[in-house]
Write a structure and sequence with these properties.
Length: 267
């Protein structure tokens, strides 16, 4: 069992807190039982599993499964696990996994999708991934100057939907948007000075929803491509709405207009 914080493996995994080292090692961290279960559910490849003996004893079935699929298994002390983790109170298991190759081809979005520009907060991005999946949208695009898709907090905030939702990164969102428009998709931008409220727009047709940076919003170049501009009305004195909440409102309004019925879809 690993007990030393000076162990080379511990030092290597601690470096994965930083984006630069995730790129250099081509690995990222999965923290916690739930994310590990979601990774296993889709057969995502696993590199190194570190867990405490207590976690191993309490998760025998998952332990057996991961023991057959991970490249390396290490029992570690709670102190070592806490040193590796980005969370304050890890639940007993951390796994490294190979980074996904960056996707630059169009996800198959034909009905409803999200385009996100310069998102900086990992919690916001993870929550939008979760909301996009929950609302039944088909995928999202992210600008390359946003927070890393495999930032540990993005993974946690996505509640496992990171493994299921088609996502791609682009250095040129304007070309991405134009390509979808050429396929007949409507592009709707959320802007504070728009004339229409978001429920007045016709979102029943195939739609891409554009959302921008937490502070600056959408750039002029991206906003100029919108076929429709909508706003989310706010009470006087409220400056703005969290971008992840705005995304959820937009996605669910689109599905409400379309008669969204998840129960029918799952039956």
């Amino acid at each position: 069992m690993l007990t030393s914080l000076q162990n080379p493996l511990v030092k290597q995994l601690r470096k994965l807190h930083r984006a630069r080292d995730r790129r250099e090692q081509q690995l990222f961290l999965l923290e916690g039982t739930h994310l590990l279960e979601e990774a296993c559910a889709v057969n995502y490849p696993l590199a190194t599993l570190c867990c405490t003996p207590e976690w191993q004893a309490n998760h025998e079935q998952l332990w057996r499964h991961v023991s057959q699929t991970a490249q390396r298994i290490e029992l570690v002390s709670p102190e070592v696990l806490k040193a590796i983790a980005t969370t304050v109170e890890p639940d007993g298991v951390i796994v490294t996994a190979p980074r996904k190759p960056e996707q630059h081809q169009l996800p198959e979005i034909a009905s409803l999708g999200l385009v996100l520009e310069t998102i900086q907060d990992p919690g916001n991005l993870g929550t939008m991934i979760r909301a996009t999946a929950a609302a039944g949208a088909e995928g999202l695009w992210l600008s390359a100057d946003s927070v890393d898709l495999d930032h540990p907090k993005v993974l946690r905030a996505s509640a496992g939907q990171w493994f299921r939702l088609p996502m791609a990164v682009s250095t040129d969102l304007q070309t991405v948007i134009a390509d979808y428009q050429a396929q007949g998709m409507q592009v709707v931008a959320t802007l504070p000075d728009a004339a229409l409220t978001y429920w007045e727009a016709d979102l029943r047709q195939p739609t891409l929803i554009l959302l921008g940076n937490e502070g600056a919003g959408l750039s002029k170049g991206v906003a100029a491509l919108a076929d429709q501009r909508v706003k989310i009305p706010l009470y006087p004195g409220v400056e703005s709405l969290n971008v992840a909440i705005a995304a959820a409102l937009m996605l669910y309004e689109a599905q409400r207009q379309r008669g969204f019925n998840p129960e029918a879809l799952s039956s």
